[in-house]
Amino acid sequence: MPQMAPINWLCLYFFFFFFFMLCIIINYYIFMYPPKNQMKSSKKITFNWKW
After folding, report:
1. Where are its TM segments located (predicted)?
2. d(CA 21, CA 14)
3. How far is residue 13 from each of residues 4, 8, 51, measured CA to CA in Å?
4. Tens-digit pLDDT profile for residues 2-43
């Protein structure tokens, strides 16, 4: 079985690095924090478990 050429390893590294950075950037811009005024007005829900 022939070995993989170094240029192929380099292309593969760049492909996965690009894909990794793309995922990080997409997740950064998709995630949205709730507005601050909404955080203060929301009541904390507590559950009373009765076994």
Report:
1. 12-31
2. 10
3. 13, 8, 54
4. 676 778 888 999 999 999 999 999 998 898 777 776 655 556
